[in-house]
Amino acid sequence: MRTMASVMEDPVLERHFKGHRDAVTCTDFSPNHKQLASGSVDKTLMIWNLAPKARAFRFIGHHDGITGVQFSPSGNLVATSSKDRTVRLWTPTMKGKSSIFKAHTAAVRSVAFSHDGHRLVTASDDKSVKVWSVYRQCFVYSLNQHTNWVRCARFSPDGRLVASCSDDHSVRLWDTSNKHCVNCFSGYGGPATWVEFNSSGTCIASSGTDSTLKIWDLRTNKLIQHYQVHSAAINGFSFHPSNKYLISASSDNTVKILDLLEGRLIYTLHGHKGAVTTVAFSRTGEFFSSGGVDAQVLMWRTNFDTKNYHELLQRQSRWSTSGSSPYLTDIHPKIRPRPHQRPSATQISAVTDTRSVDPTVVEMGQPVHRATSRLEDSNWDRSVHRTGKTAGNQTVSSKTDRGRREEEEEEEEEEERRKEMKPPDAPYAQQFHLESTLGLICQQLDILTQTVSVLEERLTLTEDKLKDCLQHQATILKDMRGSQGGSQGGSQEGSQRSKSLGTTVFPFHYNCG
């Protein structure tokens, strides 16, 4: 049943989540919209269950700030990238499984699944973009033409292209079949911070620290829209699934909502205290999330996508705005760009959310092994201790504020939680260590296979070069023999003449003698 707020055309704050201890850097909704993932500078991944009064999970494992997060298309995995140079795959459940990729030689800035869920693409400060196999958990290939840090990389919906953006002020398109760069878009006044395909794969958008957002049509390779609606760097953006809208997050402390069909700004949201670092639409577009340096995660109900645009324009014409209006410049092929008339945008401040209650947070300990691992006994003890402490605090509060019945319900829930978190027994631990060892062996074999393939490629290149050299030398020798044959033919003719003269002269001298 839809609430009164949901039938309004304005976006509204639905829930807020508090649990991170430092700036939130990335968010993503699960495909079934039952969970919301967020990563933070505090090195933790939070999985927020969107059901009322559900527990949240804090996953501990990275040794530095998390920079990117994304659910797999099936929703059974969550990938995170980190400044600790690694990528982790998590199972967003109480089991606490995770796998680790030693991905790059510098900080990893982003991670994303392909739309079939078989591949991962990562971007790094080591100036490279790398593609990985999810199921084999191994490196596949690398894309190297950027000359500075790579901030973001994404697969196209059909998986045939990869888009990447970099501090070298460029956005590059890569063909995944031949690993070649097929296009390069430049012209930013600063580093390019984010890149994304629309849901149909016909356009890409990119943002920069120069507060601009550009959209290219990949069918014509033309810049079709150029927005400058923020007053500071744009840290990220997200396409609505319908491709009609786009939301952007900026260091000017605001979230902007753009109507891409009409090419104008329609909403400015004020909800965070400080820079907004990330935004993301849900898979259906019904909700979107935002995160900021204030360590908060906000979830908004979209609403505006359910109304006819012309009806919205009529209502907007009666709304007043304060401050300077942003502007938009359209780029038309073969026509000089001309600025739009400055449209009015609705300013919305987040109302205090009274429906959200800070959930109980269950901490999942750090896995030790490089391969897929489970919680060890020590981590289990630590989690139980923390959970027990939290439950104890809740019990004290329940004695003062709640009735005896609620207290008993909490004790039952705590007992169920302890049963769920039962530590593994010894035989299972031995089996797990065996699986971990086999996983390490498989990783080493993958490395050897990759090394052999590289050596084979180099040997093939050397053979090709040697073949070219031999052919070139054969051509030179052939030409030299041809030229020498001509000169030798002349000398042989002269010698034959001399011989003929000799046969005539010598008898003459002999007879005279």
TrEMBL record:
<feature type="repeat" description="WD">
    <location>
        <begin position="185"/>
        <end position="226"/>
    </location>
</feature>
<dbReference type="InterPro" id="IPR036322">
    <property type="entry name" value="WD40_repeat_dom_sf"/>
</dbReference>
<dbReference type="InterPro" id="IPR050505">
    <property type="entry name" value="WDR55/POC1"/>
</dbReference>
<feature type="compositionally biased region" description="Gly residues">
    <location>
        <begin position="483"/>
        <end position="492"/>
    </location>
</feature>
<feature type="repeat" description="WD">
    <location>
        <begin position="269"/>
        <end position="300"/>
    </location>
</feature>
<protein>
    <recommendedName>
        <fullName>POC1 centriolar protein homolog B</fullName>
    </recommendedName>
</protein>
<dbReference type="Pfam" id="PF00400">
    <property type="entry name" value="WD40"/>
</dbReference>
<keyword id="KW-0853">WD repeat</keyword>
<dbReference type="GO" id="GO:0005814">
    <property type="term" value="C:centriole"/>
</dbReference>
<keyword id="KW-0206">Cytoskeleton</keyword>
<feature type="compositionally biased region" description="Basic and acidic residues">
    <location>
        <begin position="373"/>
        <end position="384"/>
    </location>
</feature>
<keyword id="KW-0175">Coiled coil</keyword>
<feature type="repeat" description="WD">
    <location>
        <begin position="59"/>
        <end position="90"/>
    </location>
</feature>
<dbReference type="InterPro" id="IPR001680">
    <property type="entry name" value="WD40_rpt"/>
</dbReference>
<keyword id="KW-0677">Repeat</keyword>
<dbReference type="GO" id="GO:0007017">
    <property type="term" value="P:microtubule-based process"/>
</dbReference>
<feature type="repeat" description="WD">
    <location>
        <begin position="101"/>
        <end position="134"/>
    </location>
</feature>
<dbReference type="GO" id="GO:0048871">
    <property type="term" value="P:multicellular organismal-level homeostasis"/>
</dbReference>
<feature type="repeat" description="WD">
    <location>
        <begin position="17"/>
        <end position="50"/>
    </location>
</feature>
<dbReference type="InterPro" id="IPR015943">
    <property type="entry name" value="WD40/YVTN_repeat-like_dom_sf"/>
</dbReference>
<dbReference type="GO" id="GO:0036064">
    <property type="term" value="C:ciliary basal body"/>
</dbReference>
<dbReference type="InterPro" id="IPR020472">
    <property type="entry name" value="WD40_PAC1"/>
</dbReference>
<feature type="region of interest" description="Disordered">
    <location>
        <begin position="479"/>
        <end position="500"/>
    </location>
</feature>
<feature type="region of interest" description="Disordered">
    <location>
        <begin position="320"/>
        <end position="426"/>
    </location>
</feature>
<feature type="compositionally biased region" description="Polar residues">
    <location>
        <begin position="343"/>
        <end position="354"/>
    </location>
</feature>
<keyword id="KW-0963">Cytoplasm</keyword>
<dbReference type="GO" id="GO:0060271">
    <property type="term" value="P:cilium assembly"/>
</dbReference>
<feature type="repeat" description="WD">
    <location>
        <begin position="143"/>
        <end position="184"/>
    </location>
</feature>
<dbReference type="InterPro" id="IPR019775">
    <property type="entry name" value="WD40_repeat_CS"/>
</dbReference>
<comment type="similarity">
    <text>Belongs to the WD repeat POC1 family.</text>
</comment>
<feature type="repeat" description="WD">
    <location>
        <begin position="227"/>
        <end position="268"/>
    </location>
</feature>
